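User: For my dataset I need records formatted as: sequence, then structure tokens, nothing else. Please produce one.
Assistant:
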Amino acid sequence: MTRPDAVTLAVLRGRLEQIADEMDATLYRSAFNPIIAEARDACHGLYHAETGETLVQGTKGLPIFVGAMAFAVRAVIARVKDEGGLEPGDTFLFNDPYDGGTHLNDFRLVRPIFRQGKLFCWLASVGHWLDIGGNVPGGFNARATESHQEGVRIPPVKFIARGVMNRDILSILSANSRLPQSNFGDLNGQLNALDLGERRLDGLLDEAGEDTVAAALDAFSEGADALMRAAIAALPDGTYRFDDILDNDGITDEPLAIALDLTVSGETMRLDFSRSSPPCAGPLNIAYSTAVASCYVALKHLFPEVPSNAGCLRPITFVIPETTLLGVKAPKPVGGYTETILRVIGVIFGAIGQADPSRALAGPFGTINALSIAGKRPDGSPFVMFSFFGGGLGASPTGDGLSHANNPISTATMPPAEILEASNPVMVTRWALRPDSAGAGAHRGGLGAIYEFEALTDAEVFLLGERGKGAPFGLRGGKPAALNRFFWQTEDGGEASPPLASKVTGVKLKPGMRVRLETPGGGGFGDPAARDEASLARDLAEGYVTPQGAARDYGKVG
């Protein structure tokens, strides 16, 4: 195949990315579940016919899914090789977190695209379903000691064969959820996205030809490979070490280490996590595919000029032993994967910051704070209010961190307060920035936030979070940010908080009782004494820093 010229490559890149973007938009607009429809916890892309490697991703899809989906497609390819029977009109479905997944809530649909009887590529869709069974409504079980306590696990199965849906599989999925209608709506949204993607791709291939598009896809991967090698080569050779901790595993109150030895050698990089803690009893483990995907996200943040496809990982060697909590197999629980991958991303940021100080970033808030409030409405129907929450990002050599931001794992946004209230018998009573939550520094971190919910009916509350003991770190003399805090109202009018800082299950609420989450800010960068007077005065005027906080952290009184 002849490599297309630069103009053709640019046009085809835009057309292919648009296909993935349209698939994303189709699911966002049709999903029943606010975590997809509003928070956009989903992703779509095109994948290599033989290797499953990422070819094209949308610009709006969740980055962590992009990295993991290549493993998901490979899992389907392996199943087809073992059992055969791949036909046009087939679609595979699964959520196995150890075989190309992340955690059980994330359902993947993978479809082969044939041209003139030959497999051309795969289309894939992934979205976070609201409830898939298990001990905890919403799936984030902070006390899980095996995957069976986190929900139903589905291996790659042929859900649609030659265009005909297997209703038995649909019945099994429905029987294993508290909210089958929500899941059914999300499933149909994903199928519609795949249908649209197939039509758009067929149209492009009819117009441009399979050989031209295939050659362009090869060129995209080669270009990403070359750009990543150039970015790595610009770093000084050497080994850079950076460690951080998770508070605990939800079972035993002992910290877990996420430790990285990052080695730069010419135009290649080695990420070695061998010094990390062994597999833990609770749900803070992750599978190998998830660990690699989180590395992908970190590198894309650090080297944004490199295109998002499999080529950018070719110069990278991953050392993620099964003897660590980053490479576990079934049935180790993995439902709290979001907290662990945030530490993986953070230690990569820290190590690269040592190699290239201009890229150094202080610690982000580093927890999604997966909060579920569940119970029954007055009419007896079940509800599960699930959401994740914002916080502060770390400061850098050039400026303050963002306040009330997304975590680095995603572009997902919180469902609006109005949507949470309209969908569930809860009332939002506070939603505000958290004063004094940012790490002090010449450049301060971003601020965390305060969220308070009042139950309007009897309910139970579950939280799986982090950063309740190990604060987001500061750099170059900057101070750490405030710790994560969670409180619930007790029947005697007082307040209680979790013994394990940011993890708790089964808190009972009566109507009118409230829970409050206070999220961390980001770490500071540089000596706080070096912060200019005008910036500190503005922080005081805006209420970001209190007079007491200014005296404590900056040695100055507003």
